[in-house]
C-alpha cells in the first residue's frame, strides 16, 4: 500500500460527502423473519420468486417485458447473475448489526463487505465494477479517482504483480477510504436521457454536504421500447448491498419506471440529470 504523503484520509469526508445519513437506526443482531417467504405471497411481491438465488432468477418480469441478452463476459451478465442470500436474510452492517427492512429492500446481495465502515454507497458501486473487471482479469482497467486530486489510482500499481484476492480487497478498501460519491460522480459520464439507460448505470448525487448513489443491476424492455430497472444500494454506515423496493408503484415494485421527472427510492430522491454511466 502506497498512499501519497500529501493525502489526508477521507474517513471524515465520507461522513460529510459520502452517502446520506440513513433514517433507520442500527439494531442489535436479531433473528431472521420466519414469515417473510409467506409475506411475499400476500403483500404484493408478485415479481419475486423466493427460491431464486441470483438477481435474474429471483426477479420475475411484468407481462410483455423481456431482459436483454448479454454475452457472458459483459457487465450486464455479471450484474444479473449476482448471488443473493436466502429471501429472509436481512441487511447487516459492517459491525454485525442489522438494518431492519422497513419495506426498504427485498433481497440482499451475497458479497462480503469487510469489517470496517468503508463499504458505503459509492464504494459498493465501485466494488461491483471492480469485481466484474477482476473476474475478467482485466486488471489494468481497475482504477478509480481520488477525491483529493481527481486522479486515478490503478490496481496494477498497487498490486505490483500480486493479484491475489487478499491484495485486491486491500486495494478496494484503500479506494473506499479516499474516494466517495463526489469523486465517482465526477469520474462517470453523463447519460443524456433515462431512455438511454443501461444495466450498470448509476444515479448519483454529489450532495451538499452529503450525497448518495444507486446502481441499475437489472433491466428489461417491452415491445414498445419501455424500460424498467432494478436498483441496488449500500448506505451509511457500511452495509450489505440491497435490492430496493419501489414505493411509488406497488404494482410494479421492485421494478422501477425511471422515465419520470423524479425517481424516488426509499431513502433518496434522484432526477434524470443524476444518471451517469461508465466509459
Can you offer a commentary on this structure?
- The protein has 279 residues and is an alpha+beta fold.
- 23% of the residues lie in helices and 19% in strands.
- It has helices at residues 11-17, 36-42, 55-58, 75-80, 121-135, 155-159, 165-178, 181-187, and strands at 65-67, 91-92, 98-99, 105-108, 143-145, 152-154, 189-190, 202-205, 212-222, 227-233, 242-244, 263-265, 268-270, 275-277.
- Strands 1, 4, 7, 8, 9, 10, 11 and 14 form an eight-stranded antiparallel β-sheet that branches. It has a two-stranded antiparallel sheet with strand order 2-3.
- Helix 5 (121-135) packs antiparallel against helix 7.
- It is globular and about 50 Å long.
- Residues 1-16 and 22-32 have low confidence and may be disordered.
N-to-C span: 27 Å
The rough form would be described as: globular
Helical coverage, percent range: 10-25%
Q: Find the structural class using helix and strand composition.
A: alpha+beta
Outline:
The chain has helices at 11-17, 36-42, 55-58, 75-80, 121-135, 155-159, 165-178, 181-187, and strands at 65-67, 91-92, 98-99, 105-108, 143-145, 152-154, 189-190, 202-205, 212-222, 227-233, 242-244, 263-265, 268-270, 275-277. It is of the alpha+beta class.
Map the helices and strands.
Layout: H1 11-17, H2 36-42, H3 55-58, E1 65-67, H4 75-80, E2 91-92, E3 98-99, E4 105-108, H5 121-135, E5 143-145, E6 152-154, H6 155-159, H7 165-178, H8 181-187, E7 189-190, E8 202-205, E9 212-222, E10 227-233, E11 242-244, E12 263-265, E13 268-270, E14 275-277
Antiparallel strand pairs: 1-9, 2-3, 4-11, 5-6, 7-14, 8-9, 8-14, 9-10, 10-11, 12-13
